[in-house]
Amino acid sequence: xxxxxxxxxxxxxxxxxxxxxxxxxxxxxxxxxxxxxxxxxxxxxxxxxxxxxxxxxxxxxxxxxxxxxxxxxxxxxxxxxxxxxxxxxxxxxxxxxxxxxxxxxxxxxxxxxxxxxxxxxxxxxxxxxxxxxxxxxxxxxxxxxxxxxxxxxxxxxxxxxxxxxxxxxxxxxxxxxxxxxxxxxxxxxxxxxxxxxxxxxxxxxxxxxxxxxxxxxxxxxxxxxxxxxxxxxxxxxxxxxxxxxxxxxxxxxxxxxxxxxxxxxxxxxxxxxxxxxxxxxxxxxxxxxxxxxxxxxxxxxxxxxxxxxxxxxxxxxxxxxxxxxxxxxxxxxxxxxxxxxxxxxxxxxxxxxxxxxxxxxxxxxxxxxxxxxxxxxxxxxxxxxxxxxxxxxxxxxxxxxxxxxxxxxxxxxxxxxxxxxxxxxxxxxxxxxxxxxxxxxxxxxxxxxxxxxxxxxxxxxxxxxxxxxxxxxxxxxxxxxxxxxxxxxxxxxxxxxxxxxxxxxxxxxxxxxxxxxxxxxxxxxxxxxxxxxxxxxxxxxxxxxxxxxxxxxxxxxxxxxxxxxxxxxxxxxxxxxxxxxxxxxxxxxxxxxxxxxxxxxxxxxxxxxxxxxxxxxxxxxxxxxxxxxxxxxxxxxxxxxxxxxxxxxxxxxxxxxxxxxxxxxxxxxxxxxxxxxxxxxxxxxxxxxxxx
Length: 692
Ligand code: ADP
Ligand code: SF4
Description:
The protein contains 23 helices and 29 strands.
């Protein structure tokens, strides 16, 4: 069965990569995931599903080649000795099971690995502090260290082959790899044949590449991952200078070029800062210098863009990390002409946060991500309904939409009632804030699919009251007697949050606004102070909105820097520098302690030293309160409800517990999966256990 438009045929051409053949042009580039060496079953299931979804090549994350380079608390891949082979073999098998090629990205982190676990002093081309704020220095490599590194890499390549991988990487991408450190004038101050000229700085890269080819190149394709530009101008590697020279020098040696930009936050830029295709200007020169297949990334989700990238000679294979996380079945959907079913990545980097937090990544768009093995969730399949039961979902934000969609897919009769004319809840409103337009995809994707399911009825502009819900569930009327309340949450107006367990004094004396009011279009006046005790994006993004509207803005946070949690989404530096450039005043490590007419008082979180600041409008970004009034009202009428017919009543999403959008989507999905199912009282999912 193929309903594919022939226009997309080009994406399904086979590609020869050295000794192996990829079945099409869809290439899941290496990406971290927080599963790694600690959770091999979780990892294998996640990668296997991508192979099932049509990706021709499915790669690992970075895989440490030796204890000399240990990523410490980050859970990456590990191939230190033969004992590590079976875990990785499991992933290769899962990928092969669905006809894809398995790739492995071997890494030595050089001065980027502080080696907290192995306690081995890290190594680098020249003496340098490690790139984190750890009190660790990497020592300058001797010739014997260089020989060791080459041997370790060769052994890891042989082990990769033994584990069943078809494609082995020599990795000099990002600023996280020893090979990149050797290439870089910033880190390589050697005076021997490995330092100085570009020919010398590339020597180790070339040696390792040739040795990998010699070791496993008979059966395995050898890929190079290389960052052609560090976005540092003349201080770093640029695609006009040494980035280009490296490709010129090594052009025909590897079997494949996987090219990107460095560092990781530039490579995996969020939609707040970069749009689809943002890497193209940097990498597009590569194909003119090599006859080998070229892979690039740029958060590509549009099949038309993919086709034009091939036609325009920008790349041969469409690389994707995040688009493959948001929709593991993206290639299959294009292949089968189901373009409107593609669940497009929104570029929020919640997946990346999983890696930084060393837990299996989650995804805002794909609630099954990370649940493939432990809960047995499949992104495209869901258990059919067990009955004809009717379900009422109240609220059409991410939780309600996902819940209704998944219940509809299961085959239940569903009514989704949304108070507003527009579906999407917080996603709709937040997508109008500066830079967040792509977030709208969360509701658009679901709304579009819901429209096609006959069993689901959508009622917009339908604010339900307690009475309405009782009426819907009544056994002698409509019999939508199972109710999910997805009525969301609202920002608090009293300042309660991490810093204040009681209301902030004096709030009645000032013009006060919440993020909800600003998003609803209520205008602020005069100089605005934003007190951000939430620490994710909202405080920063409102500062941006208000300064762009012409206000003077002071952004106050008790944290050491603004939007502190966005370190995990790799946006913090970008947010702070953007706001500073826009003229937002920033006060860090300050608490808002009292409020007076046109004035607020801040206190240093360490010394309690007080300062007064002019303020006409105060915006509080602290905590949210669940909109669970209906739930409590219904609870009070339990007896009457049971008599009328209401059988189950549950809060989901923000109405249950305010959180990030990904948590709401997950909550809605979980509720739909669990409906009419019994669950164990203990841990509701499988765990990977250390075998003792
Ligand atoms: P979540 O992230 O949990 O989905 P949101 O705040 O994004 O939460 O969405 C909640 C949605 O519920 C909003 O679109 C809101 O308009 C809607 N809603 C709230 N109360 C009612 C109600 N009584 N009847 C119908 N819809 C409601
Ligand atoms: Fe894309 Fe966000 Fe999902 Fe990551 S978490 S894949 S950025 S939608």
